[in-house]
Each structure stands twice: as C-alpha cells, then as structure tokens.
Input
Amino acid sequence: MTKPAFIDATIPEADVAPLTARVGAEISNVRLSGDLPHSVVVAINKLLLRHKVVFFRDQGHLDDAEQERFAQRLGDLVPHPTQGSIVGTTSILELDSSRGGGRADQWHTDVTFVDAYPKFSVLRGVVIPSAGGDTIWSNTAAAYESLPPTLKRFADDLWAVHSNTYDYAAVRPRATEAEAKHFDEVFTSTIYETEHPVVRVHPETGERTLLLGNFVQRFVGLSRSDFHRIYELFQSYVTAPENTIRWRWQRGDVAIWDNRATQHYAVNDYGDQRRVVHRATVDGDVPVAVDGRRSVSRTKAAKPARIKAA
Output
C-alpha cells in the first residue's frame, strides 16, 4: 500500500496507523481544537481523503463549543435540516439512545435526502456503553471499484430518489414508541426528496463512489420490485467486510469521516445502556454524476443556513 503523503512534520507518519488496507486510520498525538495550526488541519483533510474515516482517542477536553470550533476549520457548518441543533450551539446534533432517534442502526450516508448533503461529519463520544455500541464504516469508493465492469457501467447510468420519509415500521420493526414518535414528529417534520446519481464523482479525489444508503426510496425508471433486488446487489458490495472498519468507542473519542465516500452503521447491541454521541457536520456540495449531470432537489424546502468556516 502506498504510504500517505504529508504536508510537513506536524503529523509524523509514525502517528498515523492505518486500520485496514481500504478504510480507516487512527491518528495519535494530536489535540483537536479550533486553534490547530493550518498545516495540521490540511494534513487531517488529506488523511480523510485517503482513509475515508480517521479516529482520535483521548479528546476528553472537547466540549460542544470546542468541537464546533475545530469542525469549522474543515468548512462551513450546517445544522440538521429537520432536527436542528443543541440549544446554545449552531450545529451540534445529539444522538442519545435513551431518546427517540438516537440509534442509527441502518446503513446510511448522512442527510442524502437533500442535494448538497454534508461532506464531513465530526462525531464525539460523550456517554459510551460498557459493552457494545460500536460504529461500522464502509468505503464506498472501494465498493465501486469492487464491482465487475458490467455492473459499473449499469451503476454509472442509474439515478435514485432519496427521501427522509419512508416505511419506518418496516425498516425498524423493533423500534420503541418514542423512536417512532420522533421519526413522525421531528425527523420528517419537513419532507425532503432529492434525485442523486448512484455513482458520484468525488470533487476532491476524482474517485467514483456509490451513493446509496437507507434514504434511497427507488431507482428512476425501474419498478419497485426491480429496485429492491438491484439495491441489495449494490449494497452488498458496500457492506462487504473487506470494505469496512469497526470502531470500539471510548469516552472522548472523535471520529471524522468523508460523508461523500462512506456509509456507516451504529450497532444496536448495548440493550438498555445509554449511548450519547455529539455530531457536527461540515456543509457539502451538490453531487456530480459520471456524465456531468448534477443532483436535483424535488422539494421546495429551504436548505438550513450555513455557519461560515473560520
């Protein structure tokens, strides 16, 4: 495997440990903050593009404000379109397993039901179960490269409709009453629907990535029965073990991922224990297909205001 390139010695190669050949790296000896030198921020961005998701242990000094200050160094921040942000913050979304909507146990890419969905997510472990509660990420560029040539050509021409409204009971039959209520009253308080290419060209690396996940409702021009079979076929490449990394959380951990080139899944295996994570999201751009066409919003809902990067 080619070794990562670095801007300078601010993040020595010895402090970057790839976790698999295809996805994930742990970065040591970096104290995240809004005051990091520009060269360190650039190096983190470079590592994100290479490894798709990077992890930092021992970041217990961070609170919501400092998490936002750091995340803002990576780009403009944007709150969740329907769930908003924690009171007193501009963009932090709290995912609390003891409340509705806190268990994201479906394969997804964040907020793909809007056109310019987030490019990076910065997630901080606040309350971590003593056992369970891992998160799994997949490299969707590697998934695309794993496709046989015939499937690549098919995927290149395929478009999908993403929405934040779907058959929640069918997808999560064991959801609690509070979770179902949160979905109905909060998560779908405004309905979004966007047409995306199944294959987008990454704006920084030029890679082709599979743009799927649980917000996909149908493929344009195909029947629902064909959609389900074809979706599962493509998704099987995304979730293939060799394209994934599983992270065992500790309190104070921070994970940052390239939301344009990953899917993730929060494993719901910790029972009644509480799990709380706080997420800041960095605004993204409208995906571009292989043929140059751009994603199109099919709703008239306004996009949330951005908070400009420092």
Summary: The CA atoms of residues 142 and 194 lie 24 Å apart. Residues 1-9 have pLDDT under 50 and may be disordered. The first strand starts at residue 16 and ends at 18.
